[in-house]
Amino acid sequence: MKVVVTGGAGFIGANLCELLAGSADVDEVVALDDLSTGFVENLDGIDAEFVEGTILDTGLLDRVFAGADSIVHLGARGSVPRSVDDPVASHDANTNGTLQVLEAARRAGNVQVIVASSSSVYGANTQLPKVETMATRPVSPYAATKLATESYTLAWQFTYGLPTLAFRFFNVFGPKQSVGHAYAAVMPAFLDAAISGRPLPVHGDGTQSRDFTYVGTVCSVIADAIGRQVTHPDAVNLAFGTRTSLLEVIAVMEELMGRDLPLEFQPTRRGDVKHTQADNGVLMGLFPDVVPTDLRTGLTATIAWYEQYLG
Ligand SMILES: NC(=O)c1ccc[n+]([C@@H]2O[C@H](COP(=O)([O-])OP(=O)(O)OC[C@H]3O[C@@H](n4cnc5c(N)ncnc54)[C@H](O)[C@@H]3O)[C@@H](O)[C@H]2O)c1
């Protein structure tokens, strides 16, 4: 079996390539990435072929997708604040990029396409937990591109019969998530600060909450979806209905790291939503055997990785 991972040198992509490369069912893993936010070093020691290039290059997509059984499309310009600063660049990579991936998959033949959407599509809809059938109300350019990503994907399933699966990821965390820049996600930003002895930057009052999902769990669900060639006609939440505030995350970090962590409160960022929490009924129906890694266990592994990486 051949699997192509777009964005394969990124955080989730590299973790997924590692899992797939060790799987008996997968013979060939190809990571396609333009290295705009990913790092080739994320693939060190992993038995995957790395191809540098953009998902906007249709000729390259045709060459890389030839003979693939599954394409996991993770390549995108992540981060809400990054999209607020440059919405056109986010649209190009995320919306146009997805369209090109779907069209190349259609040319390649009957290949399963799994794409990454985001809980950000629920946006201004304040109901909790988030059920897939709820109205979507994007409040950032990034969220709009992710709604476009899943909409195109589902439309290509209906219109062209492409076997697709669109996941809405919530806050994924774990080793290899990028740090050291203004657009870093909250977990790596906190760990970077904690390990470097700086106060943890908290936007808002810290009571905002997220359905944090360990990257290993996300990757094992995707691997199962590839192995059984799972498809679904609607977007599927990939999270487990837990809701943890940033202040609660910091308390667990303090306990695991054995010291108090000073905080620096900063203004709330434009486009950020207050709370996310998934309803996982559809996910559990499709993947009944999945056992999620809990926050404490995932954070323990994540802290160990960052201490080694940043230390
Ligand atoms: N991490 C999360 O919490 C989260 C939440 C919701 C959705 N997602 C989605 O999951 C996917 C993976 O996110 P991640 O956290 O691993 O981010 P990441 O930035 O680490 O990975 C994205 C990768 O895509 C690559 N990329 C960007 N534009 C490209 C292009 N034009 N051509 C080829 N490669 C390109 C980047 O270089 C990077 O390696 C993204 O689609 C993201 O929107 C992530």
Please list the strands of the largest sheet in the order they lie side by side: 3-2-1-4-5-6-11
Specify the biggest β-sheet: 7 strands, parallel
**Runs with pLDDT <50, length 5+?**
none
Q: Count the DSSP helices.
A: 10
Strand content: 15-25%
CATH H level of the domain at 2-172 and 213-240 and 279-293: which superfamily?
NAD(P)-binding Rossmann-like Domain
- Average of per-residue pLDDT values: 96
Briefly note the CATH topology name of the domain at 2-172 and 213-240 and 279-293: Rossmann fold
Relative helix content: 40-55%
Shape: globular
Assembly state: single chain
What's the CATH class label of the domain at 2-172 and 213-240 and 279-293?
A: Alpha Beta
Instruction: Give helix and strand order, one letter per element, not per position.
Output: EHEEHEHHEHEEHEEEHEEHEHH
From the helix content, strand content and strand pairing, which structural class follows? Answer: alpha/beta
Q: What is the strand tally?
A: 13
Q: Separation of termini? A: 38 Å
CATH architecture level-2 label of the domain at 2-172 and 213-240 and 279-293: 3-Layer(aba) Sandwich
Bound molecules: nicotinamide-adenine-dinucleotide
Rg for CA atoms: 18 Å
Characterize the structure shown.
- The protein contains ten helices and 13 strands.
- α2 crosses α4, α4 runs parallel beside α5 and α6 crosses α10.
- The chain is globular, with a radius of gyration of 18 Å.
- β5, α5 and β6 form a beta-alpha-beta unit.
- Nicotinamide-adenine-dinucleotide binds next to α1, α4, β5 and β7.
